[in-house]
Every structure is written in structure tokens, then in C-alpha cells.
């Protein structure tokens, strides 16, 4: 099979979708948590009779990962909206803005950045989806890599710190 831009974009979209699905999947029954990666990613998770503690750990860690994914999606939407609607959302002082001193230059720079960074945001959310899939393999299937658990904890903590920093600068 030939891999091209379309296949890569579709794969990125699937993994990003799975990264965003981590939050609702955290509260779903185990059968649904196993069905979604099989259908969306075409990568099944083999169930190895997880105990209640493993299911609870998966719920907490995938919920944290899902919250980080949705926060990144919010930041992407804010960046895109602010970039495209720059003249509506800012004042008259364009001399000190990126692309200034003219409104057209500032608008162009902000719009290009808002659109150009979308693939970066999607890659970050897809990366969270990949970690989420490996976490499900580890906790529900006992076949995943051992680093998935500490990495999920670190990503949730980093996401919480990023959220706190973002809310304080508003």
C-alpha cells in the first residue's frame, strides 16, 4: 500500500480523535474502551481480565490525558480564531504587534500563525492518543509498555500546570 499525504492526514485525524475520545472513554465500560481503538485505529487492545484497580487507574489516567487533549484543542481554537479575526479582537496599536506597524501586516502574520500551527496542535493531540492507546494496552491488556503509566501521570501534571499558567495570564 502506498502511503501518501492523504493516508498520513487520515491517520493523524484518527489518532487525534482518539486522543480527544480519551475523556469520555474514561467513564465508558471496559468493552467500549476496547472497541474504540479496534474500530478507529485498527489496533486492538487484547483484554487480560483487568481487576477493578487497573480499570480505576485507567479511568483516572485516561481522564487526565483526555482533559489535556481537550485543553490543547481549546488552545488551538483560540489561536486560530484570534489569528483569523485579529482586527476585530485587537485595538488600534499595531506598531508593536507581530507584523506591524500596519493592520494588514499584523493580520497576515497572526492569520498565518493561527493556520500554520494547526498541524502542530493536531500532532500533540495525536501524541496524547498514542499514549492513551499504550496506557490501555498496559492497564487493560497487560501487554503495553511500562513507561505508559508514568508518562500519563507526567503529561496530566504538565497539562495541569499549563492550564494554571494559562488561566493566570488571562
How many individual helices?
7
The termini sit apart by: 48 Å
Strand residue percentage: under 5%
Largest sheet: none
How many structural units, i.e. domains? 1
Radius of gyration: 19 Å
- Would you tell me the overall average pLDDT? 85
- Report the helical percentage: over 70%
Dominant shape? elongated
Total strand segments = 0
Q: By helix and strand content, what is the structural category?
A: mainly alpha
Low-confidence stretches are none
The topology string of helices and strands comes to HHHHHHH
What can you tell me about this protein's structure?
This protein is an all-alpha fold. The protein has seven helices and no strands. It is elongated and about 65 Å long. The N and C termini lie far apart (48 Å). The mean pLDDT is 85. Keywords: Membrane, Transmembrane, Transmembrane helix.
